[in-house]
Amino acid sequence: MNGSRLRKRGVVRTMADCVLDASALLALIFEEPGRDRVAETVPGASVSAINLAEAATRLLDVGIPRETIMQIFEELQLSVVAVDAEQAMLAADFRAPTRTAGLSLGDRVCMALARHLCVPALMADRQWAEVAEAVSVEVVLVR
Asked: Given the DSSP bridges, would you call strands 11-14 and 19-20 parallel, antiparallel or unpaired?
């Protein structure tokens, strides 16, 4: 990797061509370490509806009103992707090779979407790096 550009299959693309995990999205919103790396991807990054729900749940948990959350998401101009049957099955397939790392359903859905779109998954949880190769997903740690 070189800065905000990646090379895969001989194609150079910007980091805007990626999938954000809830942890990466929350790092940006809460201005945590790694936020600058995530900020490079928006607008234009993709996020599964499942991971958006995870992030929204966390924001609601800390008392941010629903209307404010919707405004935050709209301002980020993310591409929200519904999970289809193929991605759902891929996330299920990822259970066995990711079990030891403790990845959640949301984590596996994010990885499935990244693999489906052939783009990297941005996340803040280091345990993903342990299993990325096993599921053929490029993972970019934001911190």
From this structure: unpaired
